[in-house]
Fold these 2 entries.
Entry 1:
Amino acid sequence: MSLKSPHTPVLAPSILAGDHANLVSALRVIETTDVQWLHLDIMDGHFVPNLSFGPATVKSLRGSNADLFFDVHLMLSRPDKYIDAFIDAGADGITIHVEPDYDVAGTLKKIKEAGLKTGVALNPGTDAEAAFPYLDDIDLVLVMTVWPGFGGQAFISDTLGTMEKLSKRRAEIGQPFRLEVDGGVDLKTAPLCKAAGVDTLVAGTAFSRAEDKAAFLTEIETA
Ligand code: DX5
Ligand code: ZN
């Protein structure tokens, strides 16, 4: 069974590692490269032990950039309550976690009916199988490669098995969802993920630290 992705790899920089008093400046830096995706990490201080920013910030960022694909990752206990706000803010895709207790399928349906791309996210301790019931209807599966909440953590290599299971399943069912990883992704860990079928690479710390962002983009997408 091939672990090759049907998609061209993309880098999705996360601005979580940026200066939160001036996130637009992080966006301006991203615009100097050929990056096409922007990853937006939304945290509620409940599902994860940290707070980040909300729909008003996403809306302002949207107002300052019409071209990037806004890949919104909701780390919330009740994402279903905030879908309308993030649709209104200009998200292009919304990814929700399977772990909390809410109507996951109904929430995905709502996102899809609004014309956005849909995704489900799995924490490092969650089995790949937890995503299987949704695979026929979604555009992306996000495998967390750190426990969500903070940037700058070390990549958890046990999650490679989850990626492999999901890419095998993708080939078996012929459903070409994107496979995304998030947390501790850099030029060392990206090739391991890509060998497991990953095509969408979130990078916060590694991207913000890279002196030559355009070179980092090329290296990570071709690694
Ligand atoms: C972790 C966030 C990540 C984070 C990745 O909770 O979901 O998107 O920004 O940051 P790095 O690349 O620093 O691990
Ligand atoms: Zn994220």
Entry 2:
Amino acid sequence: MLKKLEAIIFDLDGVITDTAEYHFLAWKKLGEELGIPFDREFNETLKGISRMDSLERILELGNRNNEFTTEQKLELAERKNKHYVELIKDITPANLLPGVEKFLQQIKQANLKISMASASKNALMVAEALGVKHYFDHIVNAATVTNSKPDPEVFLKAAAAINAKPENCIGIEDAAAGVNAIQSAGMFAVGIGDRNVLGHAHIVLKSTEELDLKSLCSEYVNN
Ligand code: BG6
Ligand code: MG
């Protein structure tokens, strides 16, 4: 049976721009304020995870998850977000990862749809600051998503909003949980980054520089 490609669905942080690094720095700062230091290896487990779920994981790491009320946890999450917003305040189109805009243009020229499935409540603001919002037919509002990646919810919402069938979509992710979410949604998964972390994706590219619609389509059709 011939496979039909309808849409490409992007994660944001770590795929379109390097904000994954800023999320790391902001959480690390909060962690240090709480006496819970952590390294990049632990940070891998936070990638793609919602703000509140990330906080829970950090508190759990420090054995402190029973010390705070829900209200206090919301305050801590807000504090992290302030650190994060401070770090991203000067973002411009120069912060797009290499090859991303060329790839977005290729998708548009091929008349395919483009949607965004980010867990970040800052996604719209970041897409605007990067000057790429106009490429997207839809950007899921993370506040409407109940279940964090690896649950497929955000990818299914991203596809439904543009009337694309999940099996006709390619999802692109830099996080292990995100690749799982794409696969549970029944989509073709492209991982960007380390093969040791993302080896469960259909294909793994080292960097966004390798994103090319023609070669991606042939991988998609043959897999
Ligand atoms: C994801 C990031 O895209 O968004 C996570 O990979 C982040 O690191 C999550 O925690 C939530 O982002 P925000 O901006 O809503 O705190
Ligand atoms: Mg990401």
